[in-house]
């Protein structure tokens, strides 16, 4: 059996993780390689590899149900496309997925990083503002500061969003947002993300329900056939 699943990375960092027969027999399997915990799933004749940590709240995906290529977390029921890692629930996030090769009955997974954290969490912050999801705003703000982004960057994102979409023009949310930014020089490092979050979430709350309706992003790097879409429609209707 030869299977090659091409992901979005071109870096070859394949490592052996399991025997194919093991994954087939178990249906799902958790392995630990290179300081990462990987969840393997066998679905529709293929092996898929995703990070075992649910991006919603960080709980393990071990024990998730898998049907028609959709993994459902047992903790808060966030749903993910196995082929791309894309989430069906905007309050969660995409789960990192890894390219898989089957070589002589052995499962090999490419563990090279596939996501640019800066780009990804800028987009997640924008999503949080558009959908008014405080958890998404909080996680993206914390991550951006943790990777060394200047606090002015998320501040300006919130400022642009509020001035463009706030139905009342300049109002309470933008005032709170500006006050929080002005406080940053006087705060300890661990408190800066909290201040930015309060400002950004106030902006999102002020703009909630106002036009336009924002487009939900498609699944990343995934081409879904009609038969699969039909089965998904039955699940989500």
From TrEMBL:
Keywords: 2Fe-2S, Iron, Iron-sulfur, Metal-binding, Nitrate assimilation, Oxidoreductase, Plasmid. Residues 15-109 form the Rieske domain. One of its GO terms (molecular function) is nitrite reductase [NAD(P)H] activity. Pfam families: Rieske_2. GO terms for biological process: nitrate assimilation. The keyword Transport does not apply. It comes from the Bacteria. InterPro entries: Rieske-like_NirD (IPR012748), Rieske_2Fe-2S (IPR017941), Rieske_2Fe-2S_sf (IPR036922). This is Rieske [2Fe-2S] domain-containing protein. It comes from Anabaenopsis circularis NIES-21.
